[in-house]
Amino acid sequence: MLKPLHDNVILKKEEVEKKTASGIILTDSSAKEPAVAKVVAVGEGKEKDGKRIPICVNVNDRVVYKEYAGSKLEYEDEEYLIVSENDILAVIE
Questions:
Q1: For 8-32, how does the pLDDT look when each residue is reduced to its tens digit (9 = 90+)?
Q2: % helix / strand / coil in the chain, to the nearest 5?
Q3: Which of 14, 26, 66, 85 could form a disulfide with 7 if both were Cys (CB 3.0 to 4.6 A apart)?
């Protein structure tokens, strides 16, 4: 099990849709990966002035993150992305 430290969040990127809503099939070169992922694990938050500031996202949230943020990680044959909480731009509700 991966457990992020401090204000880091582990994301599982969503699969890229290879077909548009109108039915056009995209090739690998034309399909841009969305910066949308599911939160798999969250750290305890960062410490400021001796107090722990909790992270604003929860496990299973769908989020939008900065396109080139984070570090890729392969763990137990799965690909994950570790990002700072500051790299998460929005929660999809």
A1: 999 999 875 666 667 666 655 544 5
A2: 5, 45, 50
A3: 85
Cα distances from 32 to residues 16, 44, 76, 82, in angstroms, run 8, 32, 26, 20
Whether pTM > 0.85 for this model: the answer is no
Residue 24's alpha-carbon distances to 2, 30, 52, 63, in angstroms, are 38, 11, 48, 26
User: What domains does the chain contain, in order, with CATH numbers?
Assistant: 8-92 (2.30.33.40)
Q: How far apart are alpha carbons 59 and 41 in whole angstroms?
A: 6
Q: Which residues contact 73 (CB under 8 A, 6 or more apart)?
A: 2, 10, 79, 80, 81, 82
pLDDT in tens, 58-89: 999 999 999 888 999 999 999 999 999 999 99
Q: What DSSP designation does 26 have?
A: P
